[in-house]
Amino acid sequence: LLPGCELTASTKSYTFQVDEEDDSDHILALSVVCLTDGAKDECNVVEVVGRNHENQEIAVPVANLKLSCQPLLSLDNFKLQPPVTFRLAVGSGPVHLTGWHRIMHREDASFEEDDDLSEEDEEELSPIMPAKK
Predict the structure, then answer these.
(1) Alpha-carbon distance 105 to 100, whole Å?
(2) pTM of the predicted model, to two decimals?
């Protein structure tokens, strides 16, 4: 689980990264972005900064929050590939971000399952009979 982070006027960004030597696959999912106690009634734009398929840095706005009309946004587990930076591009916050982090360990490449089943191993399926009227 990602404990969450808070973006403010003094802390405009937060970077989530994993150990480069880690041989696991990591998924970070952003669930909720919301204004917290002390927020002003101003636009607060949160951007996600990451890398695209060509390994170029790209910034994408994911939330535009305002206390009087939209103080909270559910992002339905918006999945990201670490490393990723969350940045308060506009506004003074405080904006709180929550989500989760999943680690998927890669299987040993030398171990492969045999997908070819012999006819003896396959179960016989009974034929489908028409319904009685």
Answers:
(1) 16
(2) 0.72
